[in-house]
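Figure 6 in text form: structure in, sequence out.
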């Protein structure tokens, strides 16, 4: 009966029944024995499910010039009936005197290479190199944001647990949904985005995330926290989501700390805390004014690692309302970006380093 109720909600898009936290098999369980595994080329394959899903490859860019950017491919399937692909571009300007650039374009004639490691469409290609250490991202689908960048990992990629997946369903042997994230936490970026305001050199640092939501996104998560911190020595990344009440408002957090050539620690023993709520008078969402992000884990050698970012989030860079005219399904993003200090304690020795933080808080009802 639970399966039948879920299928009705799945097709109709309605709110799901209350299954409780036992209906989530969190990746944190895998992480108890296997905190993380390093990514192999096959872990970067597109799944391209033939049932309801949203699969993305997202490249977060932090230019030496102060520009912040994002390039993203979205593969979306609705109930196995309709599949679409989209290419999104976002640019934040360092002085904020120029409005943020946002491009979102439907892709035609999309497909994959034989191994499903590279994606292509008319005017767009996201290609993994033969040695699986870099992506070439090219897009000319929108004349306002012509992209030609290369993102090369400088640290190993990882997924939490053995496969990076949390599963949803009352029968753990036959789940009806899933969530997966795979990361290249520390990357070098070369190339540019050509805009009508001029060419932007995006030489700098980057983060790559391959994500798969194997169910309706608003059924899997009610809110999200995302952290991307990059400094000269360290990269600290975190993705946290809280399920809707139908799955017991369960919190799942995956992330890690890396430096060139090495994952310092990674796993599910992390947390995101909003230490101050200033709110948003326009839509009553609890916009955070300050936050604290914590990582905890062990090195491969078994040494204890604890890391912390904390402080005021400052003035937000942007707010995005998705489907704002549809009651009960409003998604708002806040993306502050500023200099923060990462404090990292490794085997009792503490170090601190300033870097750039890009964070998002997302609320879905």
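Output sequence:
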């Amino acid at each position: 009966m639970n399966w039948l109720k879920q299928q009705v909600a799945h097709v109709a898009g309605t709110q799901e029944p209350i299954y409780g936290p036992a209906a989530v098999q969190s990746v944190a369980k895998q992480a108890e024995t296997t905190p993380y595994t390093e990514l192999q080329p096959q872990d970067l394959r597109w799944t391209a499910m033939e049932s309801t899903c949203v699969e993305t490859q997202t490249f977060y860019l932090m230019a030496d010039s102060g520009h912040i950017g994002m390039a993203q491919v979205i593969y979306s399937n609705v109930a196995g009936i309709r599949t679409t692909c989209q290419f999104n571009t976002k640019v934040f300007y360092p002085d904020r005197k120029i409005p943020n650039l946002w491009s979102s374009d439907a892709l035609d004639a999309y497909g994959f290479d034989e191994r499903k490691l590279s994606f292509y469409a008319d005017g767009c290609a996201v290609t993994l190199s033969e040695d699986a250490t870099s992506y070439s991202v090219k897009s000319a689908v929108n004349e306002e944001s012509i992209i030609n960048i290369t993102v090369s990992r400088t640290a190993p990629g990882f997924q939490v647990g053995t496969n990076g997946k949390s599963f949803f369903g009352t029968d753990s042997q036959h789940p009806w949904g899933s969530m997966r994230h795979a990361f290249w936490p520390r990357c070098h970026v070369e190339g540019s985005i050509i805009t009508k305001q001029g060419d932007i050199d995006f030489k700098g640092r980057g983060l790559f995330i391959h994500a798969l939501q194997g169910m309706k996104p608003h059924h899997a998560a009610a809110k999200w926290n995302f952290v991307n911190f990059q400094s000269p020595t360290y990269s600290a990344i975190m993705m946290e989501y809280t399920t809707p009440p139908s799955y017991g408002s369960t919190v799942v957090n995956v992330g890690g700390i890396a430096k060139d050539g090495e994952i310092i620690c990674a796993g599910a023993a992390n947390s995101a805390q909003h230490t101050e709520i200033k709110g948003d008078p326009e839509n009553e969402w609890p916009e955070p004014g300050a936050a604290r992000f914590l990582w905890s884990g062990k090195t491969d050698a078994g040494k204890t690692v604890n890391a912390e970012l904390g402080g005021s989030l400052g003035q937000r860079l942007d707010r995005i309302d998705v489907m704002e005219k549809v009651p009960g399904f409003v998604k708002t993003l806040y993306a502050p970006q500023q200099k923060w200090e990462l404090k990292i304690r490794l085997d009792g020795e503490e170090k601190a380093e300033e870097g750039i933080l890009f964070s998002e808080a997302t609320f879905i009802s």
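Caption detail: The first strand starts at residue 24 and ends at 25.
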